[in-house]
From TrEMBL, chain A:
<comment type="similarity">
    <text>Belongs to the binding-protein-dependent transport system permease family.</text>
</comment>
<dbReference type="Pfam" id="PF00528">
    <property type="entry name" value="BPD_transp_1"/>
</dbReference>
<keyword id="KW-0813">Transport</keyword>
<feature type="transmembrane region" description="Helical">
    <location>
        <begin position="17"/>
        <end position="37"/>
    </location>
</feature>
<dbReference type="InterPro" id="IPR035906">
    <property type="entry name" value="MetI-like_sf"/>
</dbReference>
<dbReference type="GO" id="GO:0055085">
    <property type="term" value="P:transmembrane transport"/>
</dbReference>
<keyword id="KW-0812">Transmembrane</keyword>
<dbReference type="GO" id="GO:0005886">
    <property type="term" value="C:plasma membrane"/>
</dbReference>
<feature type="transmembrane region" description="Helical">
    <location>
        <begin position="269"/>
        <end position="288"/>
    </location>
</feature>
From TrEMBL, chain B:
<dbReference type="InterPro" id="IPR003593">
    <property type="entry name" value="AAA+_ATPase"/>
</dbReference>
<dbReference type="GO" id="GO:0008643">
    <property type="term" value="P:carbohydrate transport"/>
</dbReference>
<keyword id="KW-0067">ATP-binding</keyword>
<dbReference type="InterPro" id="IPR003439">
    <property type="entry name" value="ABC_transporter-like_ATP-bd"/>
</dbReference>
<dbReference type="InterPro" id="IPR015855">
    <property type="entry name" value="ABC_transpr_MalK-like"/>
</dbReference>
<keyword id="KW-0813">Transport</keyword>
<dbReference type="Pfam" id="PF00005">
    <property type="entry name" value="ABC_tran"/>
</dbReference>
<dbReference type="InterPro" id="IPR027417">
    <property type="entry name" value="P-loop_NTPase"/>
</dbReference>
<keyword id="KW-0547">Nucleotide-binding</keyword>
Amino acid sequence: MTRFAHFWRKSVDGRAAILYLLPSVILFSVFVFYPMFRTIYLSFFLTDQTGNAAIMVGFENFMYLLGSSEFQNSMKATGLFVLYTVPITIILALFFALLANEKLKGIGFFRTMYSSTMGISVAASSVIWLFMFNPSIGMFNRLLSVFDFPQIQWLLDPEWALISVAISTIWMNLGFSFLILLGGLQNIDEHLYESSRIDGAGYFYRLRRITLPMLSPTLFFIITISLINAFQTFGQIDILTKGGPSQSTNLIVYSIYREAFINYQFGTASAQAVILFIIILIVTILQFKLGERRVHYQ
Amino acid sequence: MKRVELIDVSKSYDKQVDVISNINVTIEPGEFFVLVGPSGCGKSTMLRMIAGLEEITGGTLKIGEKVANNLSPNKRDLSMVFQNYALYPHLTVQQNITFGLDVKRMKKDEQHKKAKEVAEMLGLTDYLDRKPRELSGGQRQRVALARAIVSETPICLMDEPLSNLDAKLRAHMRSEIRRIQKSLGITMIYVTHDQVEAMTMGDRIMILHEGKIQQIGKPIDIYNYPANPFVATFIGSPPMNLAKAEFHETDKQLIIGSEFKLNVPAEEIGKLPRTSMTIGVRPENLYPTTPETKEEDTFHVEVTNVEILGNETIFSFKLGKEEWMAKWGGQWHIDIGDSLPVHMEFESLSIFDEQSGELIKKTIDYGKYVSNKEVPS
C-alpha cells in the first residue's frame, strides 16, 4: 500500500501530462490511428460487401495490384499528374509572389486576387472549370475558334483529359502556394536588398543570391506540401472526369474510392491506400534527404 | 576621399510636412562626420538619402563635384554599414565580405586576396568559413565593417553600427573604427544617437532635432558653446543644468530660478538682455566651497539624490521647478536630505535668449594645456 502511495505521489506530473494529452489522443485515435491500422489490417484480407474482413490472403492483394495493368495505369497517371502540377504551380506561384512583393500602389488588390483561389472550394471551382472545358459552349474552345485553331475535346480526349485536370488543379492550388511564398518573401530583411543595391547588384543577381536562398525553407515547405497534395487529388477528378476517359485520369486516390465504394473491394482498396502511403512516405523522406542540404535555415 | 555636399536638402513623405528641412552642410574629404540626435530626428533618413535608398524631395546633393540626387546607390561610390549589419545569413563570412566584389565581377583569386587582407586587418581570419549565425555580435559587426572596407569606396556611411553591442565592446569598436577611418583616409558619415560616440569619434558633429540642424562644429566647441538649450542638454552627461533667470538692475544681480542670486561683474552687465533669459551651467561648474569662496557666490541646496561613481560624485537638487545636477571630483560622503553649500561663478554660465534660444553669452574656456607643450602664441 505504501509502495502504491509512493508511486501515486511520484507520478503526479505524468498523470497531469496524460490528462492534458487526452483530448488530442482521443481525437487522433478515432480519426487517424484507428482508420490507419484498420486500413493496414484490411489490406491483408478479402472482404464481404459491408467491408468486414472475410478471408485472410496475406500479401496477395499487393501481388495482384502490382500485376494489374489497371493499377499500373493509375500509378502512371498519378506520377504524370504530380509532374504536371507541382513544378508549374510552384514556379507560377513564385513568379506571382515576386510580382506581388513589389512595393506598388494598389498591390494589395493583386495580392488578394492571386490568393483568392484559396477561398474557393474544390467542388465549386471544378464546376466552373467544367463549364470552361465544355467542348461546345466552353470558353477555351470558343477562344480557339476565334483564332481558327482546331477544337480540343478537353475532358473527353484521353490525350488531353489529364492535362485539363492538371490545368484546373494548378489554378486551384496557386492561391495557397502564392500566399505561403509571399509570406516567405516578406520575411526577408529589407536591409539585405538595400545593402546589395549599394553594391550594385542587379535584379536577377539579387534573386539568385539573396531571394532564392533566403526563401529556400519556404520553398522546401511548399514543395513538400504540394507533392503530398498532388498525390492525394480527388475532388476535381470526381467532378470533372470520374476517372475517365478510358482510365486516363484515374488517379490513385480516385481508384481507391472506386475500388472500395463502387466495387466493394475493401481489401484491394486498402492495399492501394497502403501503397500510396508508402510512396508518399518515401518521396517525402527522399525530399528531406536531398533537399535539406540546399536549404538555408537562419 | 570625396566631398559630400548637401545644399538646402529636404525630405517629405506626403509632400506637405517636411521631416527634414534646410540641410546645408559640406562634409570635407577624409572627414569623420557624425550625425547625432534623438530618435526620430531624421538622421537615419538623411543618411539614407545620401546613400540613395531614400528619394531626396528638395535641394541638391553633391558627391565629389557631381550632383547625385538621382544617381542609383551603386553609382555614388559609397559603402554602408547598417544597424543590424544586414549580413547575408546563408553566406559564409568570406562570401559576405566579397559579395560586393562579386557583383562587380572581380576575379575570384583577387576577391580572396582582398577578403584575406581585410580579414587580417579586423582579426577575422579564423572565421572566414563560418556563417554569420555562428559569430558573436562583435564579430558580426566586424564582418559588416569588413564588407564596407573591402569595397574601397571613398565614402563610408554608418547607421548606428555600434548600438547592438555591449558597453565594453562598443568602447573598443569606437576607437577601432576611428583608427581604420584615419588610416584609410575615407570620408565617414556616421549616424548615432549616442552623444559619447559623437563626442569621441567625430572630427565634426552635426546635431539634428526634428529634422533641423541645431549646430555643426567640433565636438569640444559644441560642448563648450552649445548654440541653444536643446544642444546644451543633448550633449554632455549629465546634461547642462538649465533655469530661467532675470536680471535685477538695481542690485546688479542675476536671479536664477527665482531662488539664487548671482552678482554680475560690471563689464558684463551691458551684454545681458533686459528681459528674462535661460541660463545654463554644466554640472562640473558647480563647485564645492573652499575657505576662499565669497559668501555671495555660494548657494545652499538640499540634496535629492546622490550617485558616487568611484572617482566622482554626482548629486541632484531642486532649483525652482528644475532638477539640477552637480558633479564633484572625488568621493564625497553626501546623504539625501543634506543641505550643501555650492559655489557658482558667473563666467561659467551659458546664457540663452528666452525666445530664440540663441547663445548670448559663452562660458570661459576651461581647456588646459600640458605646461611644456604649451602652444606658442
